[in-house]
Amino acid sequence: MRVLITGGAGFIGSHLSDAYLERGDEVYVIDDLSTGSIENIQHLKNNPRFHYTIDSVHNQPIAAELVDRCDVIFHLAAAVGVKLIVESPVRTIETNVRGTEVMLNLANKKKKKMLIASTSEVYGLSTEVPFREDGHLVMGATTKGRWSYACSKAIDEFLALAYWREKKLPTIVVRLFNTVGPRQTGQYGMVIPTFVKQALAGRPITVYGDGTQSRCFGYVGDVVGALIRLMEHPQAVGQVFNIGSNEEVTIRELAEQVKALTNSNSEIIFVPYDEAYEEGFEDMPRRVPDITKVQALVGFRPQMSLDGILKSVIEYYSGSEQIRGQRLEVGK
Asked: I want to staple 211 with a disulfide (CB 3.0 to 4.6 A). Which of 40, 177, 207, 226 is the partner?
């Protein structure tokens, strides 16, 4: 199998590369390093079955050549993180929509199967928890910059599914729910690496809002395993799947758990959303996936508990050479 991963130097993309190389497959990666990092794939550079290109998927001649070389495509390249989305809405919209449009068009010319990574953000302000793939998407006002990301990813989904229905391009859409683990950076607002680094440094652990908002955190190894199985399953084509854990935790509880596991003396402080992001910022009170659909099709069940996830991230940021640069076990 020859696999193309856009955004392959990113957190999830690098772990997906690990998993395919471990299977003996050949991996091609393209990443412009805008949010990804060369450090994520440094350990793969000497593998003869790993090839990387530092460029944007918007560079169509380069992207076309890579599509031509590969059997399947994982489109992970996107603007990521609430902080980046709020601060750079133009970049968010253009990166997500244009990049997906380019890749779908190129994939369609050669009818290469393509999996598109979407996000739990598309559920917006919906209160139909747990979120089902066929549930309503409730977007906030266009005057709230935060929702530009959700809308751009929803357009990606519509476009991918339209390519399947109209042009018979085999596409799969996955909605990822807070995928976490070693190598993830807190630079763009990801909460677990942010909390862990603050706790290890003895700095205040900053909880945005009142901390009652809840999330479910999926381990990257479990998520990567699900992506691979969906790509291989013929019945996944033309469908949308939630992927994540259903172990729910409030952000306040998360901060307390990180503090306890790191034996930190850090104070937990609460920062108003208006101060952290922008005036009138809106957040989702709960974000819990219904994972019945992906369980039924490919047998996906999260293996790593939140406690295990936190310990793996703490060990990574504590400088453990046993974790850094090594392949993580893919969930079974």
From this structure: 207
Average pLDDT, integer, range 228-242: 98
* Burial group, residue 321, by CB count within 10 angstroms (0-12, 13-18, 19+): exposed
- Which is higher by pLDDT, 230 or 87? 230
| Secondary structure of 282-307 in HEC code, one letter for each residue | CCCCEECECCHHHHHHHCCCCCCCHH
Complete domains list, the chain, with CATH: 2-180+217-246+287-303 (3.40.50.720)
Tokens of 254: 């998360």
Q: For the residues 58-69, what does the mean pLDDT come to?
A: 98
Question: CB count, 10 Å around CB of 45?
Answer: 10
DSSP state of 138: B
> Using 50, 70 and 90 to split pLDDT, how confident is the model at 188?
low
CA 294 – CA 300 distance, rounded (Å): 6
Predicted pLDDT of residue 328: 44
Active centre residues (catalytic): 149
The helix (H) or strand (E) run that includes residue 316 is: helix 306-317
